[in-house]
Amino acid sequence: MKVISLENDVCAGGVSSNASPFSTVRCFQFDTFNTITALCDHGILEKATDLCRDYNDLLSKTVEGSDVWNINHAKGAPVAVSSDTFRILCAAERVNKASGGAFNIAVGAASALWHFTDGSTIIPDDEDLAAAIDESDASSIVLGEDEDGQGVVTVPDGMQIDLGGIAKGYIADRVADYLRGEGVEHALLNFGGNVVAIGGKPDGTPWSIGLQNPEGEKGADCWAVLNCEDATIVTSGVYERGFDKDGIRYHHILDPRNGYPVRNGLSAVTVYAHDSMLADALATALFVMGPETGFALAQEFDVSAVFLRDNHEVVYHP
Ligand code: AMP
Ligand code: MG
User: Fold this and answer.
1) Cα(147) to centroid(ligand 2), Å
2) Which residue from 309, 218, 224, 312 is spatially nearest to 269, judged by alpha carbons?
3) CB within 6 Å of ligand 1 — which residues?
4) pLDDT by residue for the chain (318 residues), tens digit each?
5) Atom of ligand 1 at shortest distance to CA of 287?
């Protein structure tokens, strides 16, 4: 573990590409703005955004009839789900166990009490949060298969799952697979802080990925720049979703023990890895755990992690 004192800002203006023959598409899915930049025919990128929409319809907790919606409305009955959903749930279970519960998709009832995206600054009642946390024992999620081998999920009545901490990474992996299958060799996907690089830039240099300064203008103020080639860089930060009230930042990464936003002196955690789904879950988990206890988790999954504290100190696991 290295502790680095941040002397000055290194600014790059977010994800950057100097090459001009690139096509770019933007879409709003998963409650976030997503960008795909690739050296390919624009039609391929249009299909990639269709894929994003399909995954949103499968994994969103608010889209009626999605796998997650079906699970959350099953009142304790088993629900057959797609292989995509099942893979995510298996990975979520793995990271939940490995992180000692820091990563917990069963915080859905608690996260539903917060209003991080609608502009309101209402803080939920203590009792409501406590009741929601009572329904968030991830070990009571049962993953199995029916006789045809289809994944079946059972969650207790009252529990709600929320894949917001892992789904974007999974989708980014799948969209990247699609692009590679279409022969794309140079592309950069940015799904709300989940970046996946296919190859590097056509000139042979890596992509430059700017890490957002939590206190700066979104997309325009970075505190560091990482090189990235055939890899993923995922950041969980207090600036992504949330509100400020009475000088306190209420953000969307919740402490599964009490349902409140984690307040541990961190403002962002960035994970550098090869699997964006795991990187996504791990960035959320490491944010909850902090650098000291998170060290073993980053090691176990063989990922690099950068922790940025409120006081601008940087802790780095190579
Ligand atoms: P991320 O931006 O990947 O760190 O994920 C944060 C999102 O995951 C939130 O908006 C919630 O939907 C969900 N979430 C919040 N806290 C947790 C947690 N402790 N474990 C798993 N998912 C969480
Ligand atoms: Mg995450």
Assistant:
1) 33
2) 309
3) 103-105, 107, 111, 162, 164-165, 236, 240-241, 252-254, 256, 280, 283-284, 288
4) 344 333 332 333 334 445 458 999 999 888 888 999 999 999 999 999 999 999 999 999 999 999 999 999 999 999 999 999 999 999 999 999 999 999 999 999 999 999 988 888 999 999 999 999 999 999 999 999 999 999 999 999 999 999 999 999 999 999 999 999 999 999 999 998 899 999 999 999 999 999 999 988 887 889 999 999 999 999 999 988 889 898 899 999 999 999 999 999 999 999 999 999 999 999 999 999 999 999 999 999 999 999 999 999 999 988
5) 4
